Amino acid sequence: MEEATFWHTMFYAVYLTLIVGTILIVLTRNSSPSRTIGWLLILIFAPVVGLIFYYMFGQNRRKIKFVSRHYYHKIKGLSFKELVPDKNADLVPAYTNLINLLKRNNRSPLLQGSKVELISSGNRMFEALIADLDAATDHIHFEFFIFKNDETGNLVKTVLMKKALQGVKVRFIYDNMANWQVPRKFFYEMKEAGVEVTSLMGVRYPLLQSSKINYRNHRKVVVIDGNVGYVGGMNVSNNYSINSFWMDRHVRVEGMGAHGLQSSFLLDWVAAGKTCPNPEKYFPPTEIYTDNLMQIVTGGPFSDFSNLLQATISIVLNAKKYIYLQTPYFLPTDSLLEALQIAALSGVDVRLMVSKKSDSSYIDPAAHSYYEDLLRAGMRIYELQSRFVHAKTLVADDNLSVIGSCNLDFRSFETNFEINCYMYDVDVALQNKAIFCEELKHSKEIFYEDWKKRNHFRRLLESIVRLFAPLL
Length: 472
Known about the structure:
Elements: H1 2-28, H2 33-45, H3 47-58, H4 69-78, H5 91-94, H6 96-106, E1 111-112, E2 115-119, H7 122-134, E3 139-144, H8 151-165, E4 169-174, H9 184-192, E5 196-199, H10 210-213, E6 221-224, E7 228-232, H11 238-241, E8 246-247, E9 250-254, H12 257-271, E10 293-299, H13 307-318, E11 322-326, E12 330-331, H14 334-345, E13 349-355, H15 363-368, H16 371-377, E14 380-384, E15 388-389, E16 393-396, E17 400-404, E18 408-409, H17 410-415, E19 418-424, H18 426-440, E20 443-446, H19 448-451, H20 456-466
Parallel strand pairs: 3-4, 4-5, 8-15, 11-13, 12-18, 13-14
Antiparallel strand pairs: 1-10, 2-9, 3-6, 6-7, 7-9, 10-19, 11-16, 14-20, 16-17, 17-19
């Protein structure tokens, strides 16, 4: 009996030490108050679950370097070929602060002269992609968050295998956790055909590698022969090519913009434990097709700064006339929430488009909890009624467009590996704006007077779930 009491005492002592120690770690990390409070609530009211979840999802990896600083600067430097064209030169002074911010927090050069196609149709996306893959002669670099084992996935897989068998160097990065339902045979067949396949953060044994589970490679990047590239929100899935329920946006770039995508891919390739001898050969000379100016910017848990969050706040606070945003998940940080309110109260036309119902029902109440404060400040919110908004886009003042993989939520800004394309181009901005305005016709605006009348139970649910927004 005494021995049992001794072991019970030891167990509780260790247990208490773990809980108190973890709480102290959370407090001393100096994260945002909302994130800190979220973890403290879980650790205090559900300590056992809280310890497991914190170990899996709460650790801060920002100071860890995935690749050596020397190699990072070398790869980034290969795409650093700035020129300033005539037509859009007047946009540079207006966005000097943003351009310099992205140069300093992500070493993202201002790339000139890309030919740009905005793609809002899944059918057009895969039609163009397949044609470009078929035309590859030297290399294909392919990185997607989700690559499904369906008709679309198998179509793309077949083309990649064919090109590898023809002698084209094909490198393929996928997210391990997002594709856990895809059988290993699917990727093994690609390897057998000569495709080099890897995942950015492989999680073969989830219980032993649980600290990696939280970090998702959410990027969607294709580079073909160093001159053609794709970036945006679409995954390789029937959700886009067959099922038109998903509404998304992608960008096809030709020219120097592909070099920005190339540097992102090669850094991920090396970070995944692979080698890339003579990376210079993947940055061939390119033509100056247009007067387009762009920056390709990556974000993730191993960056020195929250690059994409900083850029978004900068854009919101510097908008003069309007800023239109689309996102599937709206869980803004405190700083972004404040910036949106400031812009709206300053008279800027701030509009947000989301889905009436997202594909993650537990996120919706948290997202709704932000509406009232924003509507009261004068921001306009629209819910797309019959389709799911998966696009991650921004357009401001007929001058600036942002299209990429980053949602307006804590996970994308802090935890996921993301990539956005920032384009300083009047023609592209007007195209992006036109697509947004067309989708407004299928959306329903939420008005402040109506929204504040929602019942008390709904308000309570929103408030409770919002506490955990930084962890969702």
